[in-house]
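Pipeline run #58 for the internal structure catalog. This entry was flagged by the ingest filter as a single-chain record with no existing model, so it goes straight to prediction. Upstream metadata was stripped on purpose; only the residue string is passed forward. Reviewer on rotation: M.T. Logging verbosity set to normal.
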Amino acid sequence: QVQLVDSGGGLVQPGGSLRLSCTASTIYFSYYVMGWYRQAPGKQRELVASIFNSYTNYVESVKGRFTISRDNPKKTVYLQMNDVKPEDTAVYYCSANWGDHTYWGQGTQVTVSS
């Protein structure tokens, strides 16, 4: 079982920045594909970004604005969010995937509003 702890959410103005963090409990952190998902009210959960080794993947709507990174010794994955927009408002969840196993963080609320 892998425990994931998300943090860093909050209220930010449009055009502002925020950095989300997620720390994992597993010593095998480097073997996991790490991702950030988000779920807005009334919408399906969607994959925002993922990272494995140096390979990254982003949903089209955040390309050029968000950056996912990881620090394997710290067992932490980050999501740097720049130039945020009201449509980025959602609960953001960290995920860890290895084969058939996927684990989730508890979620952190991001609200973009003036």
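catalog note: The chain has a mean pLDDT of 96.
catalog note: The two ends are 40 Å apart (CA to CA).
status: ready for reviewer M.T.
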